[in-house]
Amino acid sequence: MIHVVGGGLAGSEAAYQIAQAGYDVTIHEMRPYVMTGVHRTDKMAELVCSNSLKSVDLKNASGLLKKELRDLGSFVLDVAYRHAIPGGKALVVDRESFSDEITSILKSHPRIKIVREEITKIPDNDIWIIATGPATSDRLYEWILSTFGGGAYFFDAVAPVIDANTIDMSKIFFGNRYDDGKDYINCPMNKEEYLRFHEALVKAEVLPVEEFDKKLLFSRCQPIEEIAKSGVDAMRYGPLRPVGLGNFYAVVQLRRDNYAGTLFNIVGFQTRLKWPEQDRVFRMIPGLENAKIVRYGVMHANVYIEPYRLTDEFFRAKGRNIFFAGQITGVEGYVESIATGLYVGRNVVRMIEGRELEKFPINTMIGALIDYVTKTPKLQPMYANFGILRRNS
User: Fold this and answer.
1) Are 349 and 17 in contact (CB under 8 A)?
2) Residue 167 and residue 184: Cα distance in Å, rounded?
3) How far is it, in rounded angstroms, from Cα 381 to Cα 327?
């Protein structure tokens, strides 16, 4: 029997790949009986942070990764494209309908069984894939650490989502960076507005997070207030950069969150501000003076293992029939998680069939990413980028 622990992006992909190859697989998902600090539903492949799967441009590493996954028959990515909504050069999805279809397909598959329970330790029998993501339950993560050692974590955050009906459309404009698209809401700021906003943001009250002072922050998901504290112009060279949008001092962008266009999330505004402070400070943004936040930003700890110490190059625990997939392996990003799920799912099938396990070439984006996270001591989470891509030696 094959078991997948966790019904996120990686777990869904791995389970589907195995089932499509003709083998029975059980997905163990603890939600809704045990919820995490960031999930809101019990659906498979719920997108808890952004609803963007990043660029589709083949000149971008994320676009190349998507191309490779589609060529390999990624189930989750195919569903994502079916639920794409306007997002410029990014693959942006309606998170609700996306998760709904993933859940429906997995529930109706004749070889997939979904069991709602928390797995706190892995037995010695059968084949197991741990794809519990960065929000792995405390008890399972404690078992992993006590059994294998080598765990680590970093802090991540979620951006708030705004009710579109509460945005003052007279103060904003629609547009994309560098092209003629109209996919994003843009809230322009002059210098005075920006400086007032910056001062309020750096002085706002934040929720205390244990050990946050250790600065274990992933560079792409830093809270907006931490970016602001690093320098008065830091936001203008980061998420509020006006480049490609016109002659403005700073611009706050909002990205559509659903098909209907009734919800928009504030791009780059991951935060740990207290909820009343989010209302007060973010309403200083032109056009958001009366904005209603329907989903507040939150911060959480993301856990991961160190594959260099724990697994082989196939994410298989040394000496055990236990595989790891998804962000718990140290990859960062939605599509990167899908890639590891596909990689592990295909190799579990090969192992069952007595075939040699498949290693992807290191001159592919998937192969380079897996090579990097499995062979790097003291790993920091890594996303697809051309810096890790290298030629075969």
Assistant:
1) yes
2) 13
3) 8
Alpha-carbon distance of 113 to 125, in angstroms, equals 18
- The pTM assigned to this predicted structure is 0.82
Using CA atoms, how far residue 143 sits from 115, 157, 176, in Å, is: 20, 25, 46
What ranges in the chain are assigned the alpha helix state H? 9-20, 61-71, 75-82, 95-108, 138-148, 191-203, 224-229, 275-282, 307-310, 334-352, 365-375
Which residues fall within 8 angstroms of residue 214, CB to CB, at 6 or more apart? none
CA angle 356-360-361, nearest 5°? 120
Domains and CATH numbers, the chain: 2-152+303-388 (3.50.50.60), 161-297 (2.40.30.260)
333 near 63, Cβ under 8 Å?
A: no
Q: Read off the pLDDT of residues 56-109 as tens digits, 9 standing for 90 and up.
A: 999 999 999 999 999 999 999 999 999 999 999 999 999 999 999 999 999 999
Q: What is the DSSP letter of 233?
A: T
